[in-house]
């Protein structure tokens, strides 16, 4: 009976209604006006949207279990691992680095704006390294492995990616003076938006969101980020504010003339969960083993994916530059249109 009880609590916990139901039972509706209450109200939104997305896909006959298989298996495995491994990286980094903060901030609207800009910088740094350092790409690639875009992709992460991300993001934010209560609020807002931007075409055909596409990073921008099209590789690293993508030249709008191809550039076994979860680690291990000399072995770990000791590099930068040279006229015409 114990296993069924665990499964029941996991199922209920996935939908996120537990805290909201507690407020309803106690009739303490004033709690909905607090930060905790707002979080309790918003938690079920993503799972419900995911269910609607699947139902619409079934209704319009666009649903395939392959679109969700990798994400679902990844979520289940990560939940299993987290039952035995608890890593409080955020709390650890706050305790370690808060005494060395360059400035002190408070819980006010103007420091909130400052904090959000700093958070986006921290997110950009973590995300950029996740694409540009082969070892970190091994942790991040599971999220890019699905060949479809839908809300379930937000659950597709290698279990060590969150601790790696939290170390970088929390450390940068704390050192630049974002105080912990402000940081937790920003993390909640950014996490909610970061889940929403994975919404698929079954629920939101045009992800540009009108005029918002010029102001913030929309689902359209994140679809571009998940694409393996050469022009779209390694773009749109921020989450909500596009300020740092603009600053570093990595902002890329979706082109109406270019159909998005989701997934990673490495040939994969279609719909294979183990390949999606461990494939890049295995590939890195093989490259390191075959590389001549200690220097080349180390370089395979720290250089971008696609780097080769032979000089025949197939990194995103090389592939994109080649594509732009080959399609210069076509791209110039698209920009004029």
TrEMBL record:
Tagged with keyword Hydrolase: no
Indicate yes or no for the key word Glycoprotein: no
Pfam families named in the record: FA_hydroxylase (PF04116)
Question: Which keywords describe this protein according to UniProt?
Answer: Lipid metabolism, Membrane, Oxidoreductase, Transmembrane, Transmembrane helix
Query: Where does this one sit in the cell?
Result: Endomembrane system
Please give the Gene Ontology molecular function terms for this protein: glyceryl-ether monooxygenase activity; iron ion binding
Gene Ontology CC, one term? membrane
Specify the protein name: Fatty acid hydroxylase
Which residue ranges does UniProt annotate as crossing the membrane?
41-60, 72-97, 109-129
């Amino acid at each position: 009976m114990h296993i069924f009880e665990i499964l029941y609590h996991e199922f209920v916990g996935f939908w996120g209604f537990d805290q909201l139901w507690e407020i309803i039972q106690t009739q303490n509706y004033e709690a909905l006006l607090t930060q905790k209450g707002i979080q309790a109200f918003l938690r079920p939104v993503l799972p419900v949207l995911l269910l609607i997305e699947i139902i619409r896909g079934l209704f319009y006959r666009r649903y395939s279990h392959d679109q969700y298989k990798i994400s679902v298996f990844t979520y289940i495995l990560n939940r299993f691992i987290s039952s035995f491994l608890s890593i409080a990286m955020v709390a650890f980094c706050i305790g370690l680095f808060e005494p060395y903060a360059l400035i002190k901030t408070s819980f006010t609207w103007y420091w909130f704006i400052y904090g959000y800009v700093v958070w986006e910088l921290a997110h950009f740094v973590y995300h950029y390294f996740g694409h540009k350092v082969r070892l970190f790409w091994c942790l991040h690639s599971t999220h890019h492995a699905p060949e479809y875009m839908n809300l379930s992709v937000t659950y597709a992460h290698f279990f060590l990616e969150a601790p790696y991300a939290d170390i970088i993001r929390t450390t940068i934010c704390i050192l630049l003076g974002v105080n912990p209560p402000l940081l937790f609020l920003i993390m909640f807002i950014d996490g909610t938006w970061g889940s929403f931007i994975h919404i698929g075409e079954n629920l939101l055909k045009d992800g540009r969101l009108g005029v918002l596409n010029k102001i913030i990073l929309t689902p359209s921008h994140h679809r571009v980020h998940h694409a393996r099209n050469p022009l779209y590789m390694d773009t749109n690293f921020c989450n909500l504010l596009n300020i740092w993508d603009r600053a570093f030249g990595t902002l890329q709008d979706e082109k109406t003339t270019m159909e998005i191809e989701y997934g990673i550039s490495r040939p994969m076994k279609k719909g294979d969960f183990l390949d999606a979860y461990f494939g890049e680690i295995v590939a890195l291990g093989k490259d390191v083993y075959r590389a001549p000399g200690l220097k080349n072995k180390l370089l395979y770990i720290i250089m971008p994916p696609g780097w080769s000791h032979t000089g025949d590099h197939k990194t995103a930068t090389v592939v994109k530059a080649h594509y732009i040279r080959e399609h210069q006229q076509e791209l110039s015409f698209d920009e004029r249109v």
